[in-house]
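Known limitations

Files may contain more than one protein. Parsers should not assume a single record per file. Below, a two-record file is shown to illustrate correct handling: read the sequence, read the token line, then continue until end of file.
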Amino acid sequence: MSLEKIRESLTSKISPVLENNYETKLSSVLIIIFDDSPKILMIKKPITMNHHGGEIAFPGGKISNEDNDLLDTALREAREETGIFIEREKIVGQLEPVTTLNSGFTILPFICILSKIGDLTPNSEVDEFLEIPLEPFLETLANDSDPKHNSIQEMYTFTFENHLIWGASARMLKQITTKLK
């Protein structure tokens, strides 16, 4: 699958402002897809973090007063966590908001497609970078489409190497899988 086909499938209108009807904290993430053999960038958070410690996630975080909108948040947080500077014009679309079940965040995911990324520089919120080959991973996701939890409709779990991806990140990956079918 080429980056161009991925771009075509994931391009959507960008609406970086959410009305906070959710009674949750607003946050956003940046889903970075890159390379000629497309990969998706995820991070492993340090176990010591207050929210989502040890989990696999996309670069991102909580909106701050300095951000004009949730896209500013995603770009700022991605720059802080990865060292990659991405311009607003590089954002091709967004997914549906996802709400965390435990910590009370509503997350707006934005999508960026790059031909390559430079050297990654982690900050204190990143324990490890995962560069997940997209095509084989998507095949795994497509074959593993049923929720894994009896009482929560959208509780998906996916595995990459020895890393378990679950919760909001897994629900975002499921949205990507659906769009790329």
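...continuing to the second record:
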Amino acid sequence: MSSPFDERKYHSLLKGLEVSEVMLKNVLSDNFEFRIDSEFFKKEMLSTIEFIKNKPHEVLKNLVLDIKSFGAYSLCNDINFIEKNEHSIPFIRCLNIKNGVVNFEELLFIDKESNNLLWKSEIKPLMVLVTMSGTVGNATVALEHWKYPINSNQDIAKIETRKINPYFLATFLNSRYGYTQMIRLQAGAVQQHLYLSQIEKIIVPKINSSFQNNIEKVVQVSHSKLERSLLLYGQAESLLLDVIGLKEFKSSEKSTNIKSLKNSFLATGRLDAEYYQPKYEEIIRKVKKQPYDILGNLVTIKKSIEPGSDVYTDDGLPFIRVSDYNKFGVSTPEKYLSEYYCNMNAARLESLYPAKETILFSKDGSVGMAYMLRKNMQAVTSGAILHLTVKDKTKVLPEYLTLALNSKVVRQQAERDVGGSIILHWRINEIENVVVPVVDYTIQQQIANLVEESFALRLESERLLEEAKGMVEREIEERVAS
């Protein structure tokens, strides 16, 4: 004989579990793709969205003039990518938008004809840009003083606002209440994707225009500090190139070189013609005319690990991959290592935590990318990232060395060594023999000071963007106006 159903006991059992109880009649509420997977009904997501619904709100579609992306995917075949020049047009991809800003350091460029063809994806001032693929839901504003025209790929939504401040909208989308909705709506088995029809349905709380304008002011100050940061970093780069005589240096365009067997294969073990292009020899000769050393003499090199995708989780110990950092910093990683794996390998993993002033240096993928940590990091980097530690700081400052590693001096050596590979891989013995200029210590200090001032401004810029998000979240939670 079955016991009677005890509803209170049932709900007490559910409490604390990642279980959502949804009435059948509510399963299709706001469920336009007829999702029945558990991800769509996560407790946190449901409670966040329910909270917004209980405030005065509007759907995004009613607040904007247009939301568009790219047009037909077949147009990708007609894009002509070119080297950066005075006529090239920046082409923004999803990976260029992160943490509320656009990284203009890693752009592709297209020609004028491609830009005319891709008229639907051209970016205009004050558009809100939202990533729709890969890392979904990163938003930013196209600033009015950017040098236009600028275009973008098929996975970036461009929102022209009408009844809402674009700076406020981008900040809301990056906040917990906007980002949660986008993450909930994303779909895809291998790579997650967000569709324009889903973006239109995002619920936006009604916030008075005065508050929206205040958010705009905070975000604009943030962008101003970031631009000042980039200017200072550029001055540091320029100072280095000026001192070593490479500021106006232009690589040779000659495509042929004559080498004896003794000075080619027997010396380097390389037979590929690309390795011996004159442009590589010219820049090395230029550097060697003044004080220099090879990297292996300047740093100790420590390798990390590659634990395998089977131990990746959505939380746990941060696992930093090449895609999670650039020369300006480390972003929130997409992958973490499972608690079980960490417990089983605790001592080994702890020994791999990179310490303050460690230079992260990529050897696979985007090779030759360097970033110096400003504090100890309780995280593990992938096997594609080497840990460099300066041996003698009275000879070379880590801040200076990091900038030198990111300069065209080392970039061209990386290009030479890995050229021709499908999957780029820079061997450690080649990295150890990289030629590095060692300028006067006083100049190194000047460069280090510019770099550190640049990073201080960048941190302040990031803090202000976080402050703006916090302001939006508190306004939603405390006193949403009609």
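Parsers that stop after the first record will miss the second one. For reference, the second record is described as follows. The longest helix spans residues 441-478.
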